[in-house]
Every structure is written in C-alpha cells, then in structure tokens.
Write a structure and sequence with these properties.
- The complex is a heterodimer of chains A (322) and B (288).
- Chain A is an all-alpha fold and 322 residues long.
- Chain A contains 14 helices and no strands.
- In chain A, helix 6 packs across helix 8.
- The mean pLDDT of chain A is 82.
- With 288 residues, chain B is mostly helical.
- Chain B has a single domain, classed as MetI-like (MetI-like fold, Orthogonal Bundle), CATH 1.10.3720.
- Chain B is built from twelve helices and no strands.
- In chain B, helix 4 crosses helix 9.
- Classes of the chains: A mainly alpha (322), B mainly alpha (288).
- Chains A and B meet through helix 1, helix 6, helix 7, helix 10 and helix 11 of A and helix 5, helix 6, helix 10 and helix 12 of B.
Chain lengths: 322, 288
Amino acid sequence: MGKYILKRLLWMIPIIVGIVVLIFTILHLVPGDPAKMILGVTATPEQITALRHKLGIDLPFFVQLGRYMSGLFFHLDMGNSYVTNSNITKDILSRLPRTFALGMISMVVAFVLGILLGILAGTHQNKWQDRVCMIIALTGVSMPAFWLALMLVLLFSVKLQWLPASGMGGIQYYILPAIATSFGGIAGIARQTRSSVLEVIRADYVTTARSKGLNEREVVMKHILPNALIPIITVAGAAFAGVFGGSIIIETVFGINGIGLYKMSGITSRDYPVVQGCVVILGIIFSLCMLLVDIAYAYVDPRIKAQYEGESAKKKKEAVKA
Amino acid sequence: MAEQTKLKKNSQFREIMHRLSKNKAAMVGLILILVEILLAILAKWIVPYDWNAIDIPNAHLFPSLKHLMGTDDLGRDIFSRIIYGSRYSLSIGIFATVITTLVGTFIGAIVGYYGGTLDNIVMRILDIIQAMPPILLNICIATALGSGFQNTLIALAIGGIPGAVRLVRGSVMGIRRMEYLESADSINCGKMRTIFVHVLPNAISPSIVSATMNVANLILTAASLSFIGLGVQAPTPEWGAMLSASRNFIRNYPYMVLFPGLAIAITVLALNMLGDGLRDALDPKLKD
C-alpha cells in the first residue's frame, strides 16, 4: 500500500514538469511581440529591443523554458505581469484561498448530493424517485455552468433578493457560486452512482445481506456502496476538472477575485505570463487532486491493495528462503 | 463474398437501430437534433428577420408575436439570431468531433495494435496532457491560436484527441489477440490493412457513443470559450457569444440571457439522451 502511494507520488514529478513544459510551449506560440504590446505604438525599435532583452524573450526557446522552470521550481517565481509588473506568484497566492475554498465546498457538495441522488435513483429503479433524480441529473450535465449561474443570479438576487449577485465577503457570497459550480458534478456523479448501484444491486452478496435480516440502510451502506464506489471515484476525478477548470467562468460571473478572475484579466489584457501562471497553478492543483483520487482507489479497490501486498508478501517469503 | 459482408453489416446496423428505436428518450433526442440540423440548413428561409439587421428604435423589445424571443440591445431579432447561431454551435461541435475522432482513432488503433515502446511513449505523453483539466488545455490552445470560428474549432478538436486515442487504444488492445486477426496475418494481410479493415470495425462502437457525448461537451465548451472572449466573437450569433454579450442586461432584459442558454441546454440535452440510448443499444450485455 505504502509502495503504491510512493510510486504514485514519484510519478507526480514528471507529470508536473510535463504540464509546465506543455503550457509554456503552447503559450510560446502566441503570435505578436509582448514588448511592442507593453510599449505601445509610439515605441522606438531601440526601446523594443531593450525591453525584449530585459524580459528575456530574445533568447532561444529552450533557454526561456529553462529559465521559467528553474524560476518556478527552485524560487517559486513565475515572473512578473506585463501589465502591472507585479510578481505573479504573490498575486496568485493571495487569490488562491478563495478559488480553493470554492472548489472544495463545491466538491464536497457534489460528492455528497451526487451519491445520495444516485443511490435514491438506483434503489428505486423506474419509480418516480428514479425519474426525478435522473431528470435533475440530465439537465445538470446539459446546462452550461455560466448560464446556470446567470439564471441563479436572476432568480435569487434580482427577483427574490435573497442573496448577493456578486462580490466577496461572508458565506452568503459563496452560496450561489457553489451551487453553480457543483451542479455539473452532482449530475455526473449521480448518473454514475445510479448505474453502478444498478450493477451490484442484483449481486448474490446483496441478496445474502438482505436475507440475513440487515435493514435496507445497512445493505446500501455496507454492501452496495463500497462495491459501487470505484467508478464513482473516477467520475469524481472528472468533477475536480470541472470545478478548477470552470473557476474562470464562475468567478467572472460572480466577481470573486480568485485565480479564475485573475486568469480572465490576463486573457483580456493579453498578459500571457499571468495566464501561464494561473494555468500552471490550476493544473498542479488538479493533478494533486487526481493523486488523492488514485490513493482513494487504493483504499476502495481491494485489487490494488492485493497486488501490492501480494508483491511484498512474495518478497518476504523469498527473503525468508534466502 | 463482398455481398455477404455487406448483408451482415446491414443487419447488425439494423439491429442496433431497432434497439435504439425502442428507447423513447433516445428517439426524442435524435428527432430534436435532426430538426435542429434542418433548421440550421434552412435558416435562410425560416428566419423572419436578417440576423444582423440593426434596428435601434426597436431595441430591447420583450418577446411578442412580432419578435418571438424579443430583440437585443441593437434591435436585432433574437429568434433569427438563435436559428442562425445553430449553424455555428452545431458545426463547431460536429466538425471538431469528426477531426478528434478521425485523428484519435488513427493514432489509437496504431498504438493499440503495435503496443510496446511506441505505446508506452504515447501513453505517457497522454498522461501528462490529461493531467490538466480539459478546459484549461482548450483555453491555452485558444489563446495561442486566437479567437474566431475556425481557431475555436481547431482548439476544441486538438483538446479532445488524447481521450479519443485512449478509448480506441483500449478497445483495440481488447481484440488484439483474437483469432480472426491471426487468420488475417496468416493469409499475409498487410499490417495497415489488418488494422483498418479487421481491427477497427470491431473496436469502433465505444467511439460512436463517446463521439455523440463529445459533440454535446464541445458545444458547452465552445460556449464557455466564447463567454470568456476566446471563442467565436460578436457579432457572430454563436450562442455562447450571444450569452456573453447579453449578460450585462440581465437585470432589465432577462429574456436576452434566457433564450441562447435554453438553446444550448436543449441541444446538449438531446445529444446526451441520444448518446445514452446509443450506449445501451451498442452494449452487448443489454441485448435481449
């Protein structure tokens, strides 16, 4: 088990390096000269050359990539913004808690509600509970998150005036964004939970559990859910992608000054180091979440456990023999 | 011989269609999509107004019989714009998926069939690409390519390739040891011919389902990209761009935000229902 986690942790290194190389390469292909853009149309060629030199963008691609990587990994420095000239790492760190909090709240909501709806639907197959849950889930996966966000604002802020439309502050500012962010995840997880519950619900061990007199709740919690959980965790991983990838849209709609909004400002003002920094950070956060998902697999899936325990047991035997 | 294979293919296709036709939700989805495609093609003859005709005196009219979905801030008829918009939204989804599926199937089939080092290298690269949320990758590519219809289409198509490769590779690996491939080998059938004539047709069904779902996802992603200003730009009546342009009017003219979003939601819903139905119809476990 420990070995599996260690192996998975080591695999994070090439993944993160790979993400940084990939993003840097793609954004390096952006047409246009940043120096010209910063200085405006009135700049002389000498000024442009000087700034290009100062920014380091006159160097060959691989030198720039090396500089960026060493800055990022050894000094946690992602360079400065073209527009405000402030340090990007600092800007991102000050915004990270908001994005992270919203993401985590949404994930917890999505996971809990998604599984509950899915179990309800799966254990009442073809009854009205199933129909209602699946209609909610199907609309959930079909709506654009930002449209849902706008509609929520329309209903709860403009018409009913219960919750603030945008801005930052107390918990009430997070309710609508959390609903908008988690809805897609709820829907995806509910659909997957339903189908995996349906797959195990007719298994012999479930019938056995019922026949030995367990009540329905225990059957679901102890026998159905653990066996249905593996594909659900996979979908939950995808939901993480939706949450952190979609942060740019939800934060823009609700005016939450997190990484998403920062990235949005980078895109609008063609401030590519900012875009790059935000994508790198979100990519790293996401791959850390996927690491957690893989570790969760190891706890849930006895096959992974057995594979590694089997190996170490074999080695112990060999050691004893020797 | 040739006639026989054709007959067999036909019957399999017919069987799948028969199972699909029994699924009400899938049929509703299919009909909705066909109607939308028809509307998109015939848009020119259906729309009551020119989609780009600016008519300031008639700006911000609420929905009425004259303007079914009202008019926007420049007095353009929203109904006409949504009908025309289906051309952009649907074709981005469909064409990007076609590119993704073709390229992904090609790479996936070769990698899955040969296996070994090539497979290892390609899969590790895909691991890295897929370690990022797909929308982030789309945002990066769209930033690098610039906005516009064609560039958005390309950005979305590239972003989907890793998933398509993985899917096809998986199903190709599942049938690699089949006896009919051994027989193909034994009659000296070329590798490429084996892959494309004997392997792929037997490994393609998961791709069909995933392509349907992919069109739905891409329509959503394209709308998101337009919304953050990286996708199709105004005045093109792409649905996401329309939403993006109208969100400042949500307080006073909510219908401007309502209809483009509904158009997206209905299209994606229909595609998802069709995709669910196709998955069940192609699933050999559910054969009756």
